[in-house]
């Protein structure tokens, strides 16, 4: 399903035409300067058809890969065409289809934006200092009713697991309620006040870990439940503000849509209420997560199932294992740096298969979180069985899969045999390029060189099966250009370096080229959400979603520029939802 030729930007205006464009611009610029920076409401709200021309439009439509102009009506593109009429003003900027993040967490991202950012903190002292800063600006936070949240700590950096005592030793922090997520959100670090809510003797939890050394305070995977169950949930009003904040931040980096990788029925009802409002500026394709993780909850599903242009629920998220960083992902062989363990499954094989079959029969797309090679094997087993169940007697499961589009979320470490099965069936891998470049610091330690080389963080070798790219925000920043950078260079967009500070990318044989990376943030998510032909491209009948850039992506002389790539404007359904402030560009420079 790949292979559509993507041509270069539509900059090929001939010199003669370019002269006319320049004239046309000059003509309109004097009395009607604002035409280049449209601020009037009629345009924003799309009363009647509106036509926009830019220096170049990259469409991702094989029939017309480049254009300069399009017409929008009722939130859809109604015409895409070359600039052929000198009376049409050409706006400065280059257009690409609106970008999608194929795996993120909307509400959690909003919550993250309202909490303490611990990413990159280099020591416990720095963590404490950031927590103190938060308390300075939020003096009422940290009570039994409103815990202070944070995310981004990483014991790999500090050299040991954190403890409640590490918080307690600071007198500003002492006694307050903290719940801080590990960088991969698979562990919680809590303060003594939270520990005091637990029963005296904290039991071990199957599929999880209560970390007891060097002291109490960290709870991983299934063990997080006992903390999360005590956490005072934010009310709906607060959640709405989380979502609105998240959406405007997503628009800033060129995102027009996202796949929300696991939301409770309650959250989905909140989304459904918000989806009609002006605050809802990102298209959301949500995966249902049952109130009890890894169960079959058809009544809840029936209550939240829906499909509209702005919000869709018709898929479920299941979880096979935890994360690599905390040795939680389920491996076929023990970890190279901890031979005593091979991680743990969150469900056993038979339960996972039964769940996949039940959800498939219910009519849902089945999306399984799988990181380790054992988890990925069981995910393929489960999805294969589910396909057999819904397409009985069908020899070639790939036909069935082309309709049902089951996915593996993360698809990080996959045994070669299972990579073959994924190709044969066409199971869709949902991949986060920045996970590869953030994990490269320790992945090889966990996996050893051989497993890393054969199994880990595939991208190029999965190109044929419609990979969906995303960021897993708030685990990583949502900026899709950073994801593209990571996919193309296999270097960290945060540092600009490969593993261990190398100037070479990490296992670049799995790097994507720029076109394929961009398709991973457009066509991939569209197909994975049953929206091909509607999302991720600029074509008659498609959603009128686009992003205006200052410069063409593929003429980038320096890929480093992608790490901080400027977005000028983002449009969703023909409405401008983001405009870079104090943008003084108003001249066309052809
Ligand atoms: C879904 O459940 C909510 C709350 O339980 C209820 O108010 C609502 O009417 C239900 N909606 C449908 C479509 O069943
Ligand atoms: C799998 O887990 C389920 C639910 O916990 C349990 O009932 C079942 O016996 C387990 N099956 C196997 C084969 O261990
Ligand atoms: Zn996720």
UniProtKB/TrEMBL annotation:
GO molecular function: hydrolase activity, acting on carbon-nitrogen (but not peptide) bonds
Amidohydrolase domain span: 93-578
SUPFAM superfamilies: Composite domain of metallo-dependent hydrolases, Metallo-dependent hydrolases
Pfam family of the protein (one): Amidohydro_3
Keywords noted in UniProt: Hydrolase, Membrane, Transmembrane, Transmembrane helix
Residue ranges of the TM segments: 6-28
Name this protein carries in UniProt: Amidohydrolase family protein
